[in-house]
Write a structure and sequence with these properties.
It comes from Streptomyces glaucus. This is LuxR family transcriptional regulator. Keywords: ATP-binding, Nucleotide-binding. With about 950 residues, the protein is mainly alpha-helical. Strands 2-3-4-1-5 form a 5-stranded parallel β-sheet, sandwiched between helices.
Length: about 950
């Protein structure tokens, strides 16, 4: 069909597209815009048609004509059908422009009148298709959109390929999609121009599947259910949406241990080949689908004697993977296993689990299969499941422990000791550890609906409160109910007052109240002999005192670290280890902070403590950032944010820290976006503590982006918030230097100096050496702005040395940058120009660039390059400072040329200067041009001449 410039593709295509496809969409769009063609390929349901429609809609406004076809398997045997879809609507428009023989052959092929075939009219037909596309292109750009290229009839594919290979510079773009299971798309490229870009669509991540389900309205699904959907669908968006729809239509969600309901549409899609298997082979596959890690040995032990032959036949039919993976039996797609299990009758499922309950070697697996093979309450089965849950907990698999605990509760008879609700609460606490907060909350609400025992009710309230995360305001009504249930029991009251400490901090923003509640909770817990709660409360008290600048902080940390320790608390992100880390990093003891965190991170990973892992990755990223290891910090921060988003915990904090890391070593635009996200989340949660951190990150990103006024606006809010909640230690957020610098840049010197003076008093009292150095750096800028140039340069020189000794690499580099800026400022004629403290340094911005390069601080490096490009002319450097023959080169060019003189390869130069190999090559090209030479050999010759001289 012919499509003019007013064509609009349905808007519904784009929202689904942008979920997980942003990068490939941009790449494909750029290829089309530059005159190239695109082939999208991937398995069924992966989203090729959606992306194809959206790309077509994006480019349709640029095309004069859009031609479309969408082939189907049932019609692939009909010759010229796809060609008729493409060219039939424009035949009348171009027929008069074609030679008679070509017109006759084409009309015969497209209309079905006559007996045109490729064998009889081959050349005429081929030339007719080519001439038609050229005629249309003469009026303006043409876009050919072909979906499901694998079903294109052979005649149309041959004709389209002939024309595509001969279009040359004609403005005809092809946008096609083809179904492939691996990388076997090469043969389809024959129907496309030689410069076609092949783009493979891969599976979506769990977070992307969650976003896709939310967009389609399946918002009531728990995160654990979304995790199961992602695993079962293999990240395939079509499969995920079908599973989400089936769950949304099913009023009763699957119980723990049960598979997801697989809708009929997907069963038919993946199980059609099962009909070709004998019944016994299907039963063998059912046993494999019920097992966690099926192997041929396991199938034999479960009584499937012909497992080798039966699985080999299943592999031939595409039901099992054909690639060897040791002894494992692996389904070709997770959905095949899920659909096979869902299709089986209940008695066959129980039989499969019964066989596996004795065949499996792992006690956890045996217990799980025994539970799924048993119906009704059974105290022996419940006890075995509880033991298996404890074993899973010890192995660091809390999610498995939660699932087993719920199965144990289901098989526990009423009136038992422990009872069903006690086992449910243990499962809820395991779910919290695993980061499955929605599952934990649902279990606790279920217990509260029927439990009457105070201990069980308070324990359930604690789960409800903890599952709220930073959004404690949403569960404010739980606190008085928990206090009422606790009565006068000191053990229960300690639990409630510990959570009240968090409420005082997060909701009310009152550190003093939070500290008092924590101290009271620690006292109650000690009286009741509850060491775990006592340690948590002491750790909270220690962190609050540290941030408040309270003199008792070191003593409280010492109390929290005293023996006996509870191993669950020792590595918890709210435990004493975390409190000690915070004190270490605020005291500039960065190596000790890194060692402490590395050990804690290793332990929480071993235990499967998802939320603690998110926090410790973020803490470690902060440590690396302070140390000036920006690349490492960025990697850790991004990993923390990914885990936080997958689990739905700590997202605001991880976004905040990732913003700081992006501003230091990544992309400033992403830094601004993440900081705004963190601010929005903190405001939504009512969390004033993290709101101040998020605003500090936003202010810093604005400063790095060059928007000093926006930085002042954000950081003034931080100052007001921290004054209101009682934070007096300037090492907590370290935003004071940024605000003072931004105030200088906006001309508000008096406020900047006042901020420096007030903050310096607290920093001196607490011994915060790095904070004092950064304040001095800001004060040097104030002095420079007031004309005290020599004093400013001297102060900055001292600051750089102090920060280097403290190990704050990025702050040291920033000081060097400011020093370079001051040294390149125009002076009055009366000032000395060389040899004095205020004169231009021999390397100008080189030292700052070197330090930022060492830190991998890419945004700052770009600032140095921009400043160096606009600096005033400098005096010629002393001959001894620059290798002979290189004095006419820029800083980076001299460094690269000098390393070539030393014999370094391009790759070695890139590694030493922290730049790309392409940058080295481009720099060398400029060096050759400026020096009037042609190769590296000539640079080496210069080095030899220098040595001779």
């Amino acid at each position: 069909m012919t499509v003019r410039r007013d064509f609009k593709e349905p808007a519904r295509c784009r929202p689904d597209l942008v979920i997980g496809r942003e990068e490939l969409f941009t790449t494909a769009r750029e290829r089309l815009a530059s005159g190239g063609s695109v082939l999208l390929h991937g398995p069924a349901g992966i989203g090729k048609s959606t992306v194809l429609r959206a790309l077509a809609a994006e480019y349709a406004g640029e095309a004069r004509t859009v031609l479309r076809c969408s082939a189907t398997e049932s019609e692939s045997h009909l010759p010229f059908l796809a060609l008729a879809d493409l060219l039939g609507p424009v035949l009348d428009q171009v027929s008069d422009l074609l030679p008679a023989a070509q017109r006759t052959a084409l009309e015969s092929a497209l209309t079905g009148r006559g007996e045109s075939t490729l064998q009889r009219d081959g050349l005429a037909l081929r030339l007719a298709v080519l001439s038609t596309l050229r005629a249309l292109a003469a009026e303006g750009p043409v876009l050919v959109v072909a979906d499901d290229l694998q079903w294109l009839d052979p005649a149309s594919a041959e004709l389209l390929g002939f024309a595509a290979r001969r279009l040359g510079g004609t403005p005809v773009r092809l946008l096609c999609a083809v179904r492939t299971e691996g990388q076997e798309y090469d043969r389809h490229l024959r129907a496309l121009p030689p410069d076609t870009l092949a783009v493979r669509l891969g599976p979506l991540s769990r977070a992307q599947v969650s976003a896709l389900l939310d967009h389609r309205g399946y918002t009531g699904l728990s995160r654990s259910t979304v995790r199961d959907i992602h695993r079962t669908s293999g990240g395939n968006p079509l499969f995920a949406l079908e599973l989400g729809r089936a769950l949304a239509e099913n009023p009763a969600p699957p119980r723990p241990g049960e598979p997801l309901p697989v809708p009929t549409s997907l069963r038919a899609l993946v199980l059609s080949r099962l009909e070709m298997l004998p019944d016994e082979a299907r039963r063998t596959l059912l046993v494999a689908s019920a097992g966690a890690r099926p192997t041929l040995a396991l199938l034999h032990a479960a009584g499937r004697q012909n497992a080798e032959a039966e699985t080999a036949r299943a592999a031939e039919l595409g039901l099992l993977a054909t690639e060897p993976e040791g002894p494992a039996v692996r389904f070709a797609h997770p959905l095949i296993s899920a659909a096979l299990y869902a299709e089986a009758p209940a008695h066959e499922r129980r039989a499969a689990h019964a066989a596996l309950s004795t065949a499996a070697s792992d006690p956890i697996e045996r217990a799980r299969h025994l539970a799924l093979a048993t119906s009704g309450a059974d105290p022996e089965v419940a006890a075995r499941l509880a033991e298996a849950a404890a074993l899973a907990r010890d192995r660091g698999a809390p999610s498995v422990a939660a699932s087993l605990g719920l199965l144990a509760a289901r098989h526990t008879p009423p009136g038992s000791d422990p009872g069903p609700d006690e086992r449910r609460l243990q499962a809820a606490e395991d779910a919290l550890t695993a980061g499955e907060v929605d599952l934990a909350r649902d279990i606790a609400r279920e217990v509260l609906a029927r439990a009457s025992a105070p201990a069980e009710r308070v324990r359930a309230w604690m789960v409800v409160i903890e599952s709220a995360g930073q959004a404690l305001g949403e569960v404010d009504a739980a606190f008085p109910q928990a206090l009422a249930d606790a009565g006068d029991d000191p053990r229960l009251l300690a639990l409630v007052h510990y959570q009240l400490a968090w409420r005082g901090l997060v909701v009310q923003g009152d550190f003093a109240q939070g500290r008092e509640e924590a101290a009271h909770a620690a006292e109650l817990a000690a009286r009741a002999g509850d060491r775990r709660t006592e340690l948590l409360a002491l750790a909270f008290q220690a962190q609050a005192e540290t941030l408040m600048g309270h003199p008792d902080a070191p003593a409280t940390i010492k109390r929290a670290l005293e023996e006996p320790q509870d191993p669950r608390v020792a590595c918890h992100h709210n435990g004493a280890g975390s409190a000690r880390f915070r004190w270490l990093i605020m005291s500039d003891r960065l190596p000790e902070a890194r060692t402490t965190l590395t050990a804690l991170l290793r332990e929480v990973r071993r235990r499967g403590m998802a939320e603690s892992e998110v926090h410790y990755l973020r803490f470690l990223a902060e440590t690396e950032l302070r140390s000036g290891h920006c690349g490492r910090a960025l990697d850790l921060a991004r990993e923390s944010l990914r885990l936080a988003r997958d689990a739905g915990i700590g997202e605001a904090a991880s976004a905040m820290l990732t913003s700081l890391a992006e501003a230091a070593g990544g992309d400033v635009g992403r830094a601004l976006s993440l900081a705004r996200e963190a601010v929005d989340r903190a405001e939504e949660d009512g969390d004033v503590v993290y709101l101040s951190r998020a605003l500090a990150a936003l202010g810093h990103a604005c400063l790095v982006a060059g928007d000093a006024r926006a930085a002042v606006h954000a950081l003034r809010r931080v100052r007001e918030l921290e004054q209101g909640i009682g934070i007096t230690d300037p090492a907590r957020g370290r935003w004071h230097g940024d605000l003072a610098e931004a105030l200088v840049r906006t001309g508000e010197m008096a406020e900047a100096q006042d901020l420096i003076d007030v903050t310096r008093v607290q920093a001196l009292r607490l011994g915060r050496e790095s904070v004092l150095a950064v304040l001095d750096r800001a004060e040097a800028l104030v002095r420079a702005a007031r004309g005290e140039h020599e004093a400013a340069v001297a102060q900055l020189t001292s600051v750089q040395e102090r920060l280097a000794k403290l190990g704050h690499g990025l702050e040291e580099a920033r000081a060097a940058f400011e020093l370079a800026r001051l040294r390149t400022l125009p002076r009055s004629p009366g000032l000395a120009r060389a040899g004095d403290a205020s004169g231009p340094g021999p390397t100008s911005y080189d030292e700052a660039a070197r330090l930022f390069r060492r830190c991998r601080a890419l945004p700052w490096l770009r600032q140095v390059d921009a400043a160096a490009a606009t600096r005033p002319p400098e005096p010629a450097p002393a001959p001894a400072a620059v290798p002979a023959g290189l004095d006419g080169l820029a800083s980076m060019e001299r460094q690269v040329a000098s390393l070539v003189m030393e014999g370094a390869t391009n790759r070695e130069i890139a590694a030493r200067l922290f730049i790309s190999v392409k940058t080295v090559e481009a720099t060398l090209t400029r060096v050759y041009r400026k020096l009037g030479i042609r190769s590296r050999v000539d640079i080496v010759r210069l080095a030899a001449e220098r040595r001779t001289d």
